[in-house]
Each structure stands twice: as structure tokens, then as C-alpha cells.
Amino acid sequence: MRSDDYVRTEHADFWLSDNYLRWGLESLFTQNSLAKDSIHYVFLTEQRYSEVRQQNYNLSNTRIILLTDGSRFQFLNDMAIYQFPIKSSIEELQQFIISISSQKEPLRHYKAPVSLNQRERLLIDLIKQGKRMADMGELLNLHIKTVYQTRQSLMKKMGCSGAADLMHKLHSDIFKSWLAESHQLH
Known about the structure:
By secondary structure, the chain is of the alpha/beta class.
């Protein structure tokens, strides 16, 4: 980790490689008195997910905010993590921070953790390799309709809006880290 990628302040940890974004968030806290003494904030991008996971933050007084490109990573339901679009306005971010700081309880997940079956994990590997659906059926010894149904199930579990969104999420650093942590492959 480069030293400029992680900055700890009195009220927030910033796991961001974009210095302008970090400086903007820091100034947002100092200029607008958004920080509450009892709450610590952690801001991160997709690429820093696994490092933040390793920190084992106390979730009773910490709000973890994943700054995304607009994608929702609904498979991250095993960790209390807020998701916020990185390309939002300062006013929207201010309102968001105020809303999560005023909550009595930190974010809780009530859904069962997302779990992928063996067929879905194999399909993920083939999709990432760029295989066509017919080729996937042959390789997995499955009818092509079964391959389509498995992909649909995978998209639903991951909260994808379509095949392109699925491809984007499968290639994201956050998905790779989550998959390695939650599904010990092969």
C-alpha cells in the first residue's frame, strides 16, 4: 500500500488513491462540522475493499462508505457497508453523511449471505474467459437453456441489471476479493 492511499484523520479514514477526492472529503468534514464525536467514518473505493475488510473496524461506531461508479454490489451483505455513487454532488454527499450519522443503529443486513453454488462458480470462470453460451453448455455438459437459467440466477443474486452489468461486476476488484473471501474456490 502506498502511504498516500491511506489517510487517518480524527473523524475518518480515507482509503482512496484519488487525492482530489480525499481532499474534498476532508474539507467537507472540516468546513461543515459533519463529524459526530461518537462516529468514525471510513471511505473507500472498490479497489481497497479487501484492505478495509482486514482492518476489522468496530461496526457499532463506524460507518463504512463504499464510493462506487454507480453500480450496486448487493452481494456485499455480510458486512455493514453503505454504498454511495462517487459522481454525486457535494450537497448529496453532505445529506448522505448526515442521514447515516443520525441513525441510532449502524446499517444491518437482514438478508441471508449470497452464496454461489458450484455451477455458478464454474459459469463465472467461463464468462470471465469470454466463452459463448453454447460453448459454456458444451464445457459444462449442460443444455444451453440451463446455462441461460444459471446465468439469470447469478445475475439476480448479484443484483445485476443485465449481462453487461454482470460482466462489469465479475471483473471488478471488489467482486474478486469478495469471491476469494466468501467462496474458497476449488
